[in-house]
UniProtKB/TrEMBL annotation:
GO cellular component terms listed in the entry, alphabetical order: endomembrane system
First-listed, main subcellular location of the protein, grouped into a coarse class: membrane
Keywords, in A-Z order: Membrane, Transmembrane, Transmembrane helix
Name of the protein in its database record: LEA_2 domain-containing protein
InterPro entries assigned to the protein according to its UniProt record, in alphabetical order: TMEM106, TMEM106_C, TMEM106_N
All residue ranges annotated as the Transmembrane protein 106 N-terminal domain in the record: 9-46
Highest taxon in the source lineage: Eukaryota
Chain ranges of the Transmembrane protein 106 C-terminal domain: 86-210
Membrane-spanning segments: 47-69
UniProt record similarity statement: Belongs to the TMEM106 family.
Length: 221
């Protein structure tokens, strides 16, 4: 009887590295004892795979948090004088007019910010200590400011000057020189991003033309 015929009713023993044989009918009932230092019990770089997965998840979470964390939104102004106005009513004791003003908005976030509206309260600073509210301004147009970007926003203002300020703006020497009034603009902007709303504010003092001709780039009206 050959070796092959002798081993037909048996299978390799898993606990002796294939060098032994066990009866085939006992294959489902016998329990193999494998030494702890057996190579088959050693993980095949499992720790490396786990480390890479954890590191990848942490890196991805860090990038997402870095991109989504809210950053400051700045309102700034170069305080340019307002040279052109539109006078719609004036008498010796008052003068009313419209004019456009602008400010800059800078978005430091990595996503777009929507400007829902902007409003302004206009105060007279004819005297440095003046706090008289002389008008309002605003813009209700929706505007988007791109990520890491800035843009100019304009808003329309309507003011009425009375008393000594109106008399100053309509004095006879206004024909010879341009006349301005210092005005303080308390600007408030409503912003929306990531389903969140907040407000940004800016207070700035600017010179505004107030002659009845409405044009401070000319000397006659």
């Amino acid at each position: 009887m050959g070796y092959t015929e002798l081993m037909e009713g048996s299978v390799p023993c898993p606990s002796c590295k294939g060098s032994g044989r066990i009866p085939k009918e006992l294959e489902e009932t016998l329990v193999a004892l494998i030494p702890v230092n057996d190579d088959r019990l050693k993980p095949k770089r499992t720790w490396l795979y786990v480390f890479c997965v954890v590191l990848g998840c942490l890196s991805l979470a860090g990038v997402v948090i870095f991109l989504l964390v809210p950053r400051a939104i700045y309102l700034t102004s170069t305080k340019p004088p307002v040279e052109i106005i539109t006078v719609f009513d004036h008498m010796s004791n008052h003068i009313s007019f419209h004019f456009m003003n602008e400010f800059n908005i800078s978005n430091a976030n990595y996503y777009s910010v929507k400007v829902l509206n902007s409003s302004a309260t206009v105060l007279s600073k004819f005297q440095p200590w003046s706090t008289d509210v002389i008008g309002v301004g605003g813009n209700t147009t929706d505007v988007f400011v791109g990520p890491r970007n800035s843009r100019k926003l304009q808003f329309n203002n309507t003011v009425t000057l009375k008393g000594g300020v109106a008399e100053y703006c309509q004095a006879p020497f206004a024909q010879l020189t341009s006349l301005y009034v210092n005005m303080q603009f308390d600007i408030s902007v409503t912003l929306e991003y990531l389903n969140h709303r907040e407000q940004a504010t800016l207070s700035v003092v600017q010179q505004v033309c107030c002659v009845p001709s409405g044009n401070c780039t000319a000397t006659e009206w």
